Amino acid sequence: METSRIPGFYKMGVDERRELLTKMESFTEEEKEYLFSKEPLGTDTADKMIENVIGTFPLPLGLGLNFQVNGKDYVVPMAIEEPSVVASASYIAKIVRNAGGFTTEATDRVMIGQIQVVGCPDFEAAKEAVLKEKDSLIEDANASYPSLVARGGGAEDLEVRILNEESDSIYGKMLILHIYINTCDAMGANIINTIAESLAPTVEKLTKGKVYLRILSNYADRCLARASCVIPPHLLESKGYTGEEVRDGVIHAYEFAASDPYRAVTHNKGIMNGIDPIVIATGNDWRAVEAAAHAHAARDGKYGSMTKWSKDEEGNLVGELELPMSVGTVGGSIRVHPIAKIAHKILDVESAQELAQVIVAVGLAQNLGALKALATDGIQKGHMALHSRSVAIAAGATGEMIDIIAERLIDEKEIRVGKAKELVEEYTK
Ligand SMILES: CC(C)(COP(=O)([O-])OP(=O)([O-])OC[C@H]1O[C@@H](n2cnc3c(N)ncnc32)[C@H](O)[C@@H]1OP(=O)([O-])[O-])[C@@H](O)C(=O)NCCC(=O)NCCSC(=O)C[C@@](C)(O)CC(=O)[O-]
Ligand SMILES: NC(=O)C1=CN([C@@H]2O[C@H](COP(=O)(O)OP(=O)(O)OC[C@H]3O[C@@H](n4cnc5c(N)ncnc54)[C@H](OP(=O)(O)O)[C@@H]3O)[C@@H](O)[C@H]2O)C=CC1
Question: By CB neighbour count within 10 A (0-12 exposed, 13-18 middle, 19+ buried), where does 415 fall?
Fold first, then answer.
């Protein structure tokens, strides 16, 4: 889409938003049917995707607006059940676009396949034997997946480690091969597992040991994406707070997360609030992204903040986020789930590398949204006001009653289900 800046989008009704979206994006009739239908993922398709299917589990799909990354505008599809996340991402993206937008970069998409060998009569000799045959193992790996090589990807390198060298237990000592594979635009789990399994018989011959596990590592530390932003303090100003106060509050909040795992987990949950919804909407494996993100946050041996916030010489707030981002634009369920396909069309990324960069930019925005709120009015004001509609529904409100009850909960500063039930009873008397 030409622009991601659509002021007042949230003030429109759903039908009005859909009409505007169809003017901005050229959907086919089939796409419109899926996107706007009551059953976007048919049970027939669902039944082919997983096992023991009895139905589907819909999530709200919203659009994160105002995003500008490396000079390009992105409308970001976000599938999430939690209120205020989409609003917060859009809010911060609006501030950051006025500061020049997010800057991002990504490494090559190199994923890791692990092969575990146990029971080698001589582990050092086994390691040497594997390393001696490194080139031919890489050739074999590539021969097992020629289509990947044809796309410019494939196995690139191989390393070997001996784990628990001093262990007395027969279960402890093992040889671990890492095979590094460029999976192009696929997340690559199945590709890597296929390659790792294909190498196992040769590895057993070389090592005289027994191969057990042949599987990718989800700690994709050679498949990283980075985002940063630089925000002049005047853009952070909000009611009752100077920009400098907000900036300093955000940096204090970061230092708290960097020093205390109890805070870091919550801080990082706030980052994943932005990341998971786009990973889910684009049909990617969010468990893989979550697992790798938290491992990366503990890479120095202590769990800490995924982001970093600081002040530069001009007094600007500087935000940075680096995460492993093993996502794809093909593979898995991406081309199977009709809404995931449409989400890719809306997002308009050309490669997995580009997708990874947009995702980390959204994570960085989401973190700032939470920290800005926490460092000023507190989280409840913005978040609970938007949560009030869910509270009203949980208390039994329907139709036009939902907004009326939600408004009353906000006015009376008591956003809880018990209070909402009282109001619903009063309303229906
Ligand atoms: C909620 C806001 C944005 C309100 O903030 P506000 O100042 O009332 O917003 P505003 O009315 O000035 O609007 C500014 C922009 O925000 C967006 N916006 C504003 N309202 C809406 C809406 N209804 N729907 C969609 N977009 C909205 C919209 O883009 C709008 O620009 P415009 O389009 O008008 O030019 C703010 O209070 C905020 O960012 N709060 C933080 C919310 C948050 O982080 N939620 C996550 C849940 S809490 C959690 O799980 C994580 C946490 C917090 O524990 C993590 C941690 O501890 O670090
Ligand atoms: N631990 C984990 O995280 C695990 C995750 N998984 C699951 O694996 C799935 C992801 O595996 P993945 O291997 O990505 O998916 P696929 O098995 O679907 O493989 C991707 C396929 O996409 C095709 N392709 C088309 N264009 C490209 C391109 N530009 N770049 C790369 N491939 C292309 C390739 O087929 P061709 O070359 O024939 O055209 C390739 O085989 C996810 O569903 C995940 O949940 C599975 C096991 C473990």
Answer: buried
Q: Report the separation in Å between the CA atom of 334 and the middle of ligand 2, taken as the mean of its atom positions.
A: 9
**Percent of the chain predicted with pLDDT > 90:** 90
Handedness of CA 20, 63, 105, 146 (dihedral sign): negative
337 carries an active-site annotation = no
168 classed as catalytic: no
Neighbours of 325 (CB within 10 A): 31
Q: Which pLDDT tens digit goes with each residue over 23-68?
A: 999 999 999 999 998 788 999 999 999 999 999 999 999 999 999 9
Expressed in angstroms and rounded, the spacing between residue 389 Cα and the centre of ligand 1 is: 15
Domain spans of the chain, in order of start: 58-106+224-377, 110-217, 382-428
Q: What is the pTM of this model?
A: 0.96
Q: Which CATH number fits domain 110-217: 3.30.70.420, 2.60.40.10, 3.30.300.20, 3.30.300.10?
A: 3.30.70.420
Q: What number does CATH give the domain 58-106+224-377?
A: 3.90.770.10
- The ipTM of this complex is 0.94
Return the DSSP state at 112.
Answer: E
Give the architecture-level CATH label for domain 382-428. Orthogonal Bundle (1.10)
